[in-house]
Amino acid sequence: MTGDTTPGGAATSRPASVVTLDDVARRAGVSSATASRALGDHPHVAAATRARVREAAEELDYVASPEATRLAGGPTGRVAVLVPHPSRWFFGELIEGLEESLRAVDLDLVLFRVGGPEERAAFFARLPARRKVDAVVVLAFAVDEAEHARLASLGVDVVAAGGRVASYPSVGIDDHLAGRQAMDHLIHLGHRRIGMIAVTNDGELAPDPDGRTSAWRAALADAGAEPDDDLVVTVPWGGEGGADGMARLLGLRTPPTAVLAHDDETALGAVRTLRRAGLRVPEDLSVIGIDDHPVAALTDLTTVAQPVRAQGRRAGELVAAALRGELRERVPPAELLPTRLVLRGTTSPPGAPR
Description:
Layout: H1 21-28, H2 32-39, H3 47-59, H4 66-73, E1 78-83, H5 89-103, E2 108-113, H6 117-125, E3 135-139, H7 145-153, E4 157-161, E5 170-173, H8 175-189, E6 194-200, H9 211-222, E7 232-236, H10 239-250, E8 258-261, H11 264-276, E9 286-291, H12 294-298, E10 302-305, H13 308-323, E11 335-337, E12 340-342
Parallel strand pairs: 1-2, 1-3, 3-4, 4-5, 5-11, 6-7, 6-8, 8-9, 9-10
Antiparallel strand pairs: 10-12
Helix pairs in contact: 1-2, 1-3, 2-3, 5-13, 8-9, 10-11
Keywords: DNA-binding, Transcription, Transcription regulation
Domain HTH lacI-type: 19-73
GO molecular function: DNA binding
């Protein structure tokens, strides 16, 4: 599912101008002690005063330093997890693995949905000092320059799972390699006119956002086949997008004999279109996906499997290492977990008999 889209800089870098608690107190018209109690949710602070102090903190982008947090009561034991689509299988698997790993070191997961553009913009705009967490995990979406600065202002460690994000420690897969595994399989079967259904996905990214499409192009070139850009269609993520993309490929004067879909759910949408058109899979047209979604096994879909839950578990281990201070010297290179071809029933040589 899943490019470094922002400039470098350690995840723990601080803004050039540091706002202090005294600045917040002056803006809110209260003492520093009252401001501290208000931001700490002290029960004896009036609601109106607490609201005024919090508003001042947000206006000034005030974030308590990790040192001040420790003096005020030590680590929180909580890790914020930013996820665009928690209901989707891919993100659910990442979260399951992450939670398992964090639970093993007595850390709690606090989930924040950052889905559509408006929801995401509102979250980062309101990212306040009172979100007391020890670390942040970004799940498979691109962080732009402004968002990178907001995360840095928290003064906590940031880790990414499902792809490399900004300059954070991260774990994912090699999307180009996964695409090559799929394409090399189709080419080995004898296909040369191979379509590609790429997807757009609300800012999500992989270590190489164009990795699967670049693999399509490179594999055909290596096989001596001229890549035909008409065979690449880009659709919204999901089954309906895959169904539409397959319909567009079938509308070509010379349709492909095989199709690589960006992911399994998109691939299954393509299969639906083929069957509704009265075409046989794989005898008339082969289809391969990437992910190894649980439904892929039930529908006998050939795919390239990626270890999604393992990516989440490893991200949790990186969080624990960061909190122990083991990642402060330098940001480690992105960790890439292996992918593997899973042969099932939706691919065969072109024109294979029934």
